[in-house]
Amino acid sequence: MRLPALHRPIVTPAAPLGRRTLLALGTAPLALPALAHPPRGALGRILSQGVLRAGVWLDSPPFGYFGPDGQPAGMEVEAARDIARSLGVRLQLVPLGFGDRTAAVSLGHVHLACAAIIITPERLRRVAFAHPHGRLTTLLATTGSRPVSSLAELRGRRVLVRSSTIHEATRRLPAGTDIVVVDEYEQGLRAMQAGDAAAMALPEPAFRRLSLEHPNALLYPVAVLGDPPYGVALPLGEPDLLRFLNTWVFLREDDGSFAAWHERFTGAPRTPMSRL
Fold it and tell me: Are residues 173 and 159 in contact, defined by beta-carbon separation less than 8 angstroms?
């Protein structure tokens, strides 16, 4: 299977940290104890080649997008950069289309993907995930000019989504709801304003962005449809890389990095993830 939507990698250098220093907390590196064996599998190849290929989704602010300077930015892009810095290797950011994110990992086009990939049972059959480091709250939104006050009102009416797979939470909608996929959230907003749709399901950051950019639309939330976790995706059968990523998630949660990135790119505080 060939992925048509893979683009030219964007190479970002990372300051080298010694091979035995696999994680860095801020500017103070944390030297891990001697390992029972040298890193094997994908982690060993990343370290020996000195390059981390990380898939990112650059059409999904605040998770990934091109900033005013034309460079990739966003919470998940920052996570990929931090993983490369922690490993002391160069970073190749590989832009992925929405539908290519899981396939790029399972087919080995990238070492891992930081692309706000929701963890689902179906995806777990194809790729592994590190511990979740975020949640994608899905809202049902409508406009003040054509209000909807409850889910029951949507029976037999049209609800818009940007993807037929990202919003598994649309299962909460009543039977008979007409779910239609749109290319852009702005397109969905225009359809609601024209009376061609009753509501739209979208991630909370996208709702906030639309509300700020289109204040006259009177966009407001009707209900929370779901709050699924997302995490870094990696190939199945890579225990060393998985252990490293799980440690990285634990430490970045503990030192407040995830909270800082969330507030930086969304302007809102982040709810801490629960840990076992």
Answer: yes
User: Starting from the edge strand earliest in sequence, which strands make up the sheet with 178-181, in order?
Assistant: 178-181, 158-161, 199-203, 138-143, 219-226
Residue 83 neighbours by CB under 8 Å, 6+ apart = 52, 54, 112, 114, 232, 245, 248
Q: How far apart are CA 65 and CA 55, in angstroms?
A: 13
Task: With both helix axes pointing from N to C terminus, report the angle between 257-266 and 75-87 in degrees, rounded to the nearest 10.
Answer: 150
* Residue at token pair 């094997």: 40
Containing domain of residue 201, as a range?
A: 138-226
pLDDT above 50 (res 24): no
Please give the span between the terminal C-alpha atoms of the chain, in angstroms, as a whole number.
37
Does this model's pTM top 0.90? My answer is no
What is the average pLDDT score of the chain? Answer: 84
Share of the chain above pLDDT 90, in %: 54
Dist. CA 109–CA 124, nearest whole Å: 18
Query: Is 127 inside any structural domain?
Result: yes
- Asked if residue 139 has pLDDT above 50, the reply is yes
Verify that 220 and 235 share a domain, yes or no.
no
